[in-house]
Amino acid sequence: MTTSGSSEANFLLMWSRLERGEELRRLVTKRTKLIVLTNPNNPTGAVLSPEAMDGIVGLAEKSGAWILADEVYRGAERDGVRTPSFWGRYDKVLVVNGLSKAYGLPGPRVGWIHGPEDGIKRTWPYHDYTTISPSALSDRMARIALAPETRERLLERTRRILNRNFPVLEAWLKRRRDLFTFLPPRAGAICFVRYALKMNSTALVERILRQRSVLVVSGDHFATDGYLRLGFGSTPAILRAGLARIGKTLHEIHRP
Fold first, then answer.
1. Do 114 and 17 lie in a common domain?
2. Closest among 228, 223, 225, 189 to 208, alpha carbons compared
3. Contacts of 215 (CB under 8 A, 6+ apart)
4. Going by C-beta distance under 8 Å and a sequence separation of 6 or more, which residues neighbour residue 228?
5. Which of 115, 146, 177 is the last residue of a domain?
6. 0.70 exceeded by the pTM?
7. Burial of 110 (0-12, 13-18, 19+ CB in 10 A)
8. Per the domain annotation, does 151 fall within a domain?
9. Residue 2 region, left (φ>0) first, then alpha (ψ -120 to 50), else beta?
10. pLDDT band, very low/low/confident/very high, at 24 (cuts 50, 70, 90)
11. What is the spatial distance between Cα 20 and Cα 48, in angstroms, rounded to a whole number?
12. Are strands 217-218 and 227-231 parallel, antiparallel or unpaired?
């Protein structure tokens, strides 16, 4: 099923599987209907090990739950090693992907759901009440982008950008070891960093936006205060300029 971006795909799958009145009081019980995950992960850029994936599948099988695997960052691995898909590991898997992340083509607003035939048929009536279908022009652009040779060129371009830009961010963070701790992301143009300031993350990003016109995502958005999600998918010049502006605000806050 083709959707208007992967965000619509996620919405449709949750809407069509989570009915009113359901409460998930603990993780994966007999009442669990849907296990949702992002692999490679947003915001950390981490990738699940095969053992972890098998464990998740085992829990889903025990409860009879569906697995909704958002794999929109698959193909954006910095080392070029493709993240294994959840598809084929279990008969109740629904995979979401789209052109916005690994392919660097958010403009066409094309995403998709890959799943068993009965799962797609169940979701289709809900799709009819949202966008029905992407535009013909977006559909044509997606077909060109996903042609085998073009697809690999786009993914290679993404890896070049990531491997060119991450050292810039990494060096900037390491020069501020008194402020930041982080694990290098394996995939995606995002890095989730912990900071040592006694300041709420939303308040911090709002101050950076207001003072420096630089947009950073707060850890609060992921229920993890004390962290920032920094993107590094732009040109090196823009990245350096943005980091310099962020650094000025951090210096004002952190200086003795």
1. yes
2. 228
3. 205, 209
4. 192, 193, 195, 201, 204, 205, 216, 217, 218, 219
5. 146
6. yes
7. buried
8. no
9. beta
10. very low
11. 31
12. antiparallel
**Cα four-point dihedral sign 80, 105, 161, 244:** negative
Question: 114 Cβ partners below 8 Å, 6+ apart?
Answer: 87, 94, 95, 96, 97
Is the domain of 116 the same as that of 201? no
Task: Indicate the helix (H) or strand (E) that contains 97.
Answer: strand 93-98
Q: How far apart are CA 16 and CA 244, in angstroms?
A: 45
Whether residues 86 and 213 fall in one domain: no
Please give the residue range of the domain that contains residue 237: 157-254
The H or E element spanning position 67 is: strand 66-70
User: How many Å apart are CA 88 and CA 168, to the nearest integer?
Assistant: 38
- The answer on pLDDT for 237 being more than 60 is yes
State how far the Cα of 55 lies from the Cα of 124, in Å rounded to an integer: 30
Longest dimension (CA), the chain: 62
* Helix/strand/coil for 151: helix
- 152, part of any domain: no
Nearest to 96 by CA among 28, 13, 35: 13
Express each pLDDT in 61-73 by its tens digit: 999 999 999 999 9
Query: What pLDDT does residue 21 have?
Result: 46
Structure-token pair, residue 195: 């900071």
